[in-house]
Amino acid sequence: MSIDRPGPGEELNAGPPTVPRQAATVILLRGGAQALEVLLVQRTPAARFMGGAWVFPGGAVDAHEGEGDRAHRLAGVRELAEEANVHGVQADDLVKFSQWITPAEVKIRFDTHFFLVSAPEDADVRVDGSECVDFVWTTPELALSRQREGELLLVFPTIKHLEQISRFDSADALLDHARGLEVLPVTPRVIGSGEQARVVLPGEPGYAVGAGREPGLS
Predict the structure, then answer these.
(1) CA gap 112, 98 in Å, rounded
(2) Which of 34, 37, 56 minimizes the C-alpha distance to 157?
(3) For 98-111, what is each residue's pLDDT tens digit?
(4) Who contacts 192 (Cβ-Cβ below 8 Å, separation ≥6)?
(5) Rounded to whole angstroms, how far apart are CA atoms 207 and 47?
(6) Which residues are CB-contacts of 112 (< 8 A; sequence separation ≥ 6)?
(7) How far apart are the two ends of the chain, measured CA to CA in Å?
(8) Which residues sit opposite 96 in a β-bridge?
(9) Euclidean distance between CA atoms 86 and 37, whole angstroms
(10) CB 177 within 8 A of CB 169
(11) What is the mean pLDDT of residues 66-73?
């Protein structure tokens, strides 16, 4: 799959834009000051949405988790436990890294807040075998290389985050950088349709054409 194509199960929406559901994703790191690896989990191939894709652990915010930044942090901690069996991470440990909103042209949409955190020393990563069926610790460079060789199915946001992370030599350096970031929302767009559909980021050719479908967000 081309890196700029919509992911598996991302159905394009011909009607009014869907209001994005709030979600959180956690990029779990290891390596300290010496190296940088990230955790990817594989969604079950049986899933209609993103089936078989390798992603960072994450999911939608539950109603009981409330609203705002705290809710996203609580959801991220919960998803780490549910999808990867990683416990001991506290909400305040998470470092905000980015915010991506699914393109307005896609039917199933999320307003996803991405966080970074170092894995606890005693982390015993395991997948649940139903929602997620496998996991791997990998350098960003190796994951991107395996994607290019067709060995890993990665979707557009995962690829773009791996590209950003790959610029850093260690987990500590990445975390130090992220602590000083001003995080602003990014909303890619899908241009074209069918086999010609591709995802573009703000500032890239074609992004501004037909823009303005995005509903107001609060």
Answers:
(1) 8
(2) 56
(3) 999 998 888 889 99
(4) 198
(5) 30
(6) 23, 24, 25, 58, 99, 100, 101, 102, 157
(7) 34
(8) 115
(9) 16
(10) no
(11) 97
Show the tokens assigned to 161: 């985050």
Backbone angles phi, psi at 22, to 5 degrees: -70, 140
**Selection from 103, 98, 99, 145 nearest residue 10 by Cα:** 103
What token pair was written down for 20?
A: 């994005």
Question: Which residues 6+ apart lie within 8 Å of 211 measured at CB?
Answer: 189
* Count of helix runs (H) and strand runs (E) in the chain: 4, 10
Contact predicate 210/104, CB 8 Å: no
Greatest Cα pair distance, the chain, in angstroms, is: 50
Q: Which residue's structure tokens are 């069918």?
A: 194
Tokens at 144, concatenated: 């991107």
Average pLDDT over residues 133-161: 96
Assigned token pair, 63: 């109603």
* Cα separation, 49 vs 30, whole angstroms: 28
**Residue 9 phi, psi (nearest 5):** 85, 0
pTM of the model: 0.90
